[in-house]
Amino acid sequence: MTDEQPRRSAFFGRRQGRPLREHQADLTGTLLPRLAVDTAVPAPDDLRALFPRPVDEVWMEIGFGGGEHLMHQARSNPAVGFIGCEPFVNGMAKALASIERDGIDTIRLHDRDAVEVIDWLPDASLSRVYLLYPDPWPKKRHWKRRFVSADRLDRLARVMKPGAELRFASDIDTYVDWALNHVHAHPAFAWSAETADDWRKPWAGWPGTRYEAKAIREGRPPAYLTFRRL
Fold this sequence. Notes:
Order of helices and strands: HEHEHEHEHEHEHHE
Number of helices: 8
CATH architecture: 3-Layer(aba) Sandwich
């Protein structure tokens, strides 16, 4: 990152909730270092080299929560390598336990701000990016912390291949409007919806999440937006 590039700013809130169980704490000290993306060294020219076996392409999930969606995608797409970013310690611990249990070898992890990894990635290296139920930061004074912004779209545009998809889901209608407005204003992305069902219904193979189920129970129907890198 050069002096001319914008300063990074965190988009997440608290780092840890309830204390970790003993095995979870052990995994954060043993398995996480082995899977963590090392942004202190240059990224490989071919991002697929991050993984211990050949993969066809690389996807990223920004803020994967407890890892339910990340793990589902890894199980369903064994030829894809995944980079999962989650600064919340408890969510990372849950994902580590699932990775260990299922023996998944196509996931690399980052436990800090996802922008650190995005800025580290080589140009046009990602085929898909997921941003699912990000913190909406509802207070106006906190809007600058929302992940969807002109600056972060610039950064994503650099690392996404032409034709790559940015998949965004939220149950907060004001954040959905915010995302649509920002992406419409960005020359590198286009919203791919053609009918209402393209944003009302989840993507094929969507596993759902506990957060999503809670939102639906509470009367907040989610929107599922797909943006294409031009």
